[in-house]
Write a structure and sequence with these properties.
Layout lengths: L1 H21 L22 E7 L17 H21 L7 E8 L6 H9 L2 E4 L5 H4 L1 H20 L4 E2 L1 H7 L1 H5 L5 E7 L5 E2 L5 E2 L2 E2 L4 H6 L7 H7 L3 E2 L10 E7 L8 H15 L5 E5 L3 H12 L3
Helix pairs in contact: 2-5, 2-11, 3-5
Length: 302
């Protein structure tokens, strides 16, 4: 009888160890060519990405010999997904409750494109988070986003990105969830224009293009004083964004104006501050390999 109880206790201990091991996704292996750094993963992440599919991605209109701008976007998306995976792989299984999704505004009428966007809306929790599914995220974001950009370029019907109205009408409903660390990443050249959202209130606008910057006289020294004294900037779209962090990637100023990048940054900085976004960063377009650390530090910050 004594031997029976010893065997029973040993069996219970082995069962406990096996169950405990299942609580931890493996995070110490290199899988599909990227590592999972050891990071604190206490937050539940809710990551949203807004794609600007305006003519900025047209390789004929805006050629970039080092790497086309749409391919840079795809690289950024892959890096975002990699770090989303890394976050989850550092969590105990029971703690996993994380989301990632991609938006285009205005919404595409193309059914196939909508299906591709739906495939990029991914939710993981303790009931559905398998290692295999987690590691599919990066692959999906790489392959499906490539198809989205290629389809937009082939269609060659650029109507702009309604970024201003997205911040006004959709961010609160679509991108912010209580109890999560909410992150919105905007892939854009920094200019904002949509034919259906063109408003002006004194020197505030819902749009900004290279033509506007030149028209406002922001292509010569002294532009900053005029900008501040005459209250130029975007019309405030929202005043309730204290529960979201914003990373703007891909700023691509017109190189004919030496002040162009500073003007774009001034507009975005003022706009995000007025919308009460507490944490944000704005980065110029660069190769994905150079942007990896920026994305990782923003998403996986301690």
């Amino acid at each position: 009888m004594k031997k029976y109880f010893q065997s029973l206790i040993l069996l219970m201990l082995l069962s406990f160890v096996m169950v405990s091991c299942k609580d931890y996704p493996k995070s110490d292996k290199i899988i599909h060519n990227h590592e999972f750094p050891k990071v604190s993963a206490n937050d539940n992440l809710n990551i949203s990405v807004l794609l600007d599919l305006s003519d900025r991605i047209n390789p004929e209109k805006y050629p970039a010999p080092a790497m086309e701008f749409y391919m840079r976007d795809v690289g950024y998306l892959k890096s975002i997904a990699e770090n989303f995976e890394a976050h989850i792989m550092n969590k105990r299984m029971i703690k996993i409750d994380d989301k990632i999704q991609v938006f285009i505004d205005p919404e595409p009428s193309d059914k196939n494109l909508n299906e591709k966007l739906s495939a990029l809306k991914i939710v993981f929790n303790k009931d559905v988070a398998t290692k295999k599914e987690i590691l599919e995220t990066c692959k999906k974001y790489d392959s499906i986003s490539t198809l989205i950009y290629e389809a937009a370029i082939k269609d060659d019907h650029y109507v702009g990105s309604d970024t201003w109205r997205f911040f006004k009408n959709k961010v609160n409903d679509y991108c912010i969830i209580d109890g999560y660390r909410n992150i919105l990443i905007v892939l854009t050249d920094g200019y904002i224009y949509h034919k259906g959202t063109k408003m002006k209130e004194r020197n505030r606008t819902t749009y900004l293009t290279p033509k506007d910057i030149k028209g406002f006289g922001f292509n010569k020294s002294g532009w900053k004083e005029k900008y501040e004294q005459q209250d130029f900037g975007f019309i405030t779209a929202n005043e309730n964004l204290s529960n979201i962090e914003v990373l703007v990637l891909g700023i691509n100023p017109d190189d004919k104006n030496p002040y162009e990048e500073d003007v774009i940054r001034a507009y975005w900085n003022k706009w995000l501050k007025e919308m009460n976004v507490k944490n944000f960063d704005i980065k110029q377009a660069d190769l994905p390999s150079n942007m990896e650390k920026v994305i990782r530090d923003f998403i996986l910050k301690e």
